[in-house]
Amino acid sequence: MSNYASYNTGKYALALLVFATLIGTSFAGGLGTSSISMTSSSSSVSPGSSTTASYTVNLASGNTWGTTLSVVNASTLKSDGISVSLSNTYADPPYSGTMSISTSSSTKAGIYYITLAATGDDPSTSPANFVLNVTSFTAPRTTAPSTSTVPVTPEMKLYSSNTIAFSSINGTRNVSVVAPDGVTIIATISNGTYAEVNSTMLKNFNFTLATFTLTQGITSPPNESNEVPAYAYAFEVNGKISPAISFVNSSGKPMPVVTNAKYPPSWGSWTFLGGTFNGTEYVGGAYAFHDTWSYNSTTGLITNTQFYKPVMWVFTITQNKTTASTTAPTTQPTTLPTTTVPVTTPPSSSPPYAIIAVVIIIIVAVAAFLLMKKK
Questions:
Q1: Helix 353-373, helix 3-28: angle, nearest 10
Q2: Three-class DSSP category at 263
Q3: φ and ψ at residue 330, rounded to 5 degrees
Q4: What is the pLDDT of residues 14-40, one digit of tens each?
Q5: What are the pLDDT digits (tens) for 89-131?
Q6: Cβ atoms within 10 Å of 80's Cβ, excluding its own
């Protein structure tokens, strides 16, 4: 064989080898991203009860390939007596399934967050959170009812906070803080904002954005049983939460602090007034009125542009009409049987595509070697 033919044979063999390597790389690596949506974002159950919610994993960008869905915080939930299983954990997006949630009789009342995330060749760009509200279970009376009841004092405990030294002449500032469900809340305080405290205009003050967990006594707002309380947040001025303080401009007119958070439009809030804050806990108070939020479908953000006082707000989630609150029947015994649904272990997110790629590369390499032998 001539040198020219040998050169061409080697060139073709090299091209085949490069092509096979590229194919192998595309098989082995991720091909796109996915997003997770749910038919409902929350549900209420009593201890020992269960509920379900449907989910869908959609392709957000790139090409569809194998993707695994899992419950990120399954072990933490299990320690609280909450078991979560997914009917479909692996497929090429889009695919759907049902999430089954079961609580034990020992699960404490409170708000729990179930976080879903997709991994593999089409990982999710952000997790999906489902809010589970476990309500208190009251056993049937075995004695005569008391003639008086002692109300439970509302109580919220500080979860996270971020404080900045703000000056009205140093420009607009953004303050962010993490909520109990892992979502970041951002407050924007504009240039030219003063804090009016006892008729005094403060040009320089400490501004704090804080989130709180609901520890006791925080139920749904009056006549709004379909609104499930999630958690609370507040503004602070020099460490104080009080409606007697206002954010104003130099003329004394209100200067609202804008709040943004990435939640679906089913989320909103209620202003909560009348409690006292000691730096770590907010005790007492009651719902005052419903707040107005706007939703941007492009950014996925809810926004409030009206809050100009450092007070407390309770985030609530409006349940879908098909998602009814589950309450314990009056005939239910004091001790409920524990219902445990094992957590489904997702299959490996690494399918045998790498093996296929290696086989292709070996075949092409052998073919190239045989062609070279003919020279």
A1: 180
A2: coil
A3: -70, -20
A4: 555 555 555 554 444 457 888 898 888
A5: 999 889 999 999 999 988 988 888 899 998 887 788 778 888 8
A6: 17
- The answer to whether 32 touches 62, Cβ cutoff 8 Å, is yes
Q: How buried is residue 64: exposed, middle or buried, by Cβ count under 10 Å (0-12/13-18/19+)?
A: middle
Q: Is the peptide bond before 94 cis (omega within 30 degrees of 0)?
A: yes
Tokens 């390939």 appear where? 65
User: Kindly report the CA angle at 136 between 133 and 142, in degrees rounded to 5?
Assistant: 160
Q: Any residues with CB less than 8 A from the CB of 373 and at least 6 apart, and which?
A: none
Look at the block and give the residue holding tokens 């299983």: 85
The two tokens of residue 151 are 């109300």
3-state SS class at 356 = helix
159 shares a domain with 279: yes
Same domain? For 164 and 300 the reply is yes
Using an 8 Å Cβ cutoff, are 270 and 290 in contact?
Answer: yes
Same domain (yes/no): 17, 48: no
Query: Which range marks the domain in which residue 240 is found?
Result: 155-318
Q: How far is CA 91 from CA 96, 127, 169, in A?
A: 9, 18, 55
Q: Please check whether residues 129 and 43 belong to one and the same domain.
A: yes
Phi-psi category of residue 78: left, alpha or beta, with phi > 0 → left and psi -120 to 50 → alpha: alpha
Strands 184-189 and 258-261: antiparallel
Take residue 150 and report the two structure tokens written for it. Answer: 């002692």
